[in-house]
Amino acid sequence: MPSLRSNPYARLFALPGARAFTAWNLLARLPMGMFGVGAVMMISAERGSYTLAGAVTATGLAATALAGPWTARLVDRYGQARVTVPAAAFAALGSLSLVLCVHADAPAWTLFASYAATATSPNTGGMSRARWAHLLRADPAALHTANAFEQAVDEVCFMLGPVLATFLCTSFFPGAGTLTATLMFVTGAVLFAAQKRTEPPVSATPLKQRSPLRGNRGLAAILAVFICTGALFGSLEVVTIGFADAQGHRAAAGAVLGLQAAGSCAAGLLYGLRRPASPASARFPRCLAAMAALALLPLLTTTAGGGLPLLAAALLLAGMATAPTMVTGMNLVQGLTPPGSLNEGMTLAVTGLLGGIAAGSATGGWAVEHLGAAGYAVPAGASAAALLVATASRRALSGRRALSVRPAA
Fold first, then answer.
1. CA distances from 69 to 29, 75, 144, 348, 381 (A)
2. pLDDT tens string 260-293
3. Hey, what CATH topology would domain 21-195+212-402 get?
4. Contact status, residue 27 vs residue 188, Cβ threshold 8 Å
5. Which of 39, 95, 152, 364 is placed for a possible disulfide with 235 were both Cys, Cβ 3.0 to 4.6 Å?
């Protein structure tokens, strides 16, 4: 175990302002692990349909996938502080509208419209990564550690978020998870935006700049992989909630999902301590292969008759390949994104994930209702597809700019 002086994570937080922006960003990001579970549990409890719940969350995620890159482009052009607060406030109104519509037994279309209004949610994780890229622009090794830390933070959010949302929805009332998440999100976003000491400078590029995707085959390939990876995440969440409900342990669904995130968090932190010995483009397919192999464990466990305890163990193991895969993928995104478009490039990556999560949520909702435990074939198939896409795109991913993490300008 490295000493405090030699610990790369300790060196990160020795940077002026790093602790402050990280703390408030964590408060803004924790709800990201609550909104999906909270919406599924609220809608399924009030309307009695996992298909509807999955479709509503899928619609919101798809809308976010469309709006997210435009919000990020505004961040690159006008700065994080000026865009984050109004974007977060509008998204919060969508969440509040969803709770009211569900509670008032409004028509189903209002649920879709309300959740779609959350599409302006700013990519707080991407903005935090952009701050690290700015602070560590001359130190690629430290940037690798920072990316690993940020992925671990994502996993903590998806480890604690589902547990907290499940507890609130089952202990108080179905909308408690969404309401609490909204309050935390707005508070964290406002206080994060106030940390101007570490905010990256705005881009001098005109607002109508070219998309970083244009002519960028490597970035397009990563987005395709992230769509498949998102389908793994989205379907796994909904199928697990449905499986736990069928087992008579609905309240335990959040804890079971949290174990998957716990395995990923631990693996991500360990991965950040290692200095990469090969290019990210070479590591990425290997990480995806491990993720595809481990994604079979939940399917094999449940179809063999295993209950929640065995499923929890399978998800813990399966999660250990997630963070290394995402860290390496984000390293590639940073290396392939043109200068002045870092927020947009990373948001495009998240857009791919959200689009996949949307498709996975809808497909997983149908699968768990009609196939039961065999619904875990959806996340297993999605992870296999991610590996196939990356393998087919190996040449595009190994281009000159993808060989290492390029420090942000």
1. 18, 10, 24, 6, 27
2. 878 888 888 888 887 777 777 788 889 999 999 9
3. Growth Hormone; Chain: A; (1.20.1250)
4. yes
5. 364
